[in-house]
Amino acid sequence: MAHHVTVMTRTGCHLCEVAEQDIERICGELGVAWSAQDVDSDPEWRAEYGDRVPVILVDDAEHGYWRVEEDRLREALA
Fold first, then answer.
1. Which terminus of the chain has a smaller tally of CB atoms within 10 A, N or C?
2. CA torsion 40→65→17→20, rounded to 10°?
3. What architecture (CATH level 2) is domain 4-77?
4. DSSP secondary structure string, 16-54?
5. Residue 34: what pLDDT?
6. What pLDDT is stored for residue 42 in this prediction?
7. What are residue 55's DSSP bridge partners?
8. Cα(first)–Cα(last) distance of the chain, in Å?
9. Contact 77/57 with Cβ under 8 angstroms?
């Protein structure tokens, strides 16, 4: 099964920038596709994730927020 990671992010968010760098590195090593979505581009996303960015989704299910837990993410993607 091919996984996909999404980072729900916001412009100007330092933690989001760090999370995107971590996700890019980890997903690159594992060959997993990933993308970033700006929570402020959609009112529903802003309502759901806006106060917890960055939020990490694995296969569209919430995996974590604020920081990337590398070991846990790698396990979810194995």
1. N
2. -100
3. 3-Layer(aba) Sandwich (3.40)
4. HHHHHHHHHHHHHHHT-EEEEEEGGGSHHHHHHHTTT-S
5. 98
6. 97
7. 8, 65
8. 10
9. no
* Per-residue pLDDT tens listing for the chain (78 residues): 799 999 999 999 999 999 999 999 999 999 999 999 999 999 999 999 999 999 999 999 999 999 999 999 999 999
Taken as a whole, the chain contains a residue count of 78
Q: Which two tokens stand for residue 31?
A: 């060959």
In one-letter notation, the amino acid at residue 71 is D
Q: Classify the C-alpha dihedral 58-32-17-69 as positive or negative.
A: positive
Torsion of CA 31, 33, 38, 43, to 10 degrees: -140
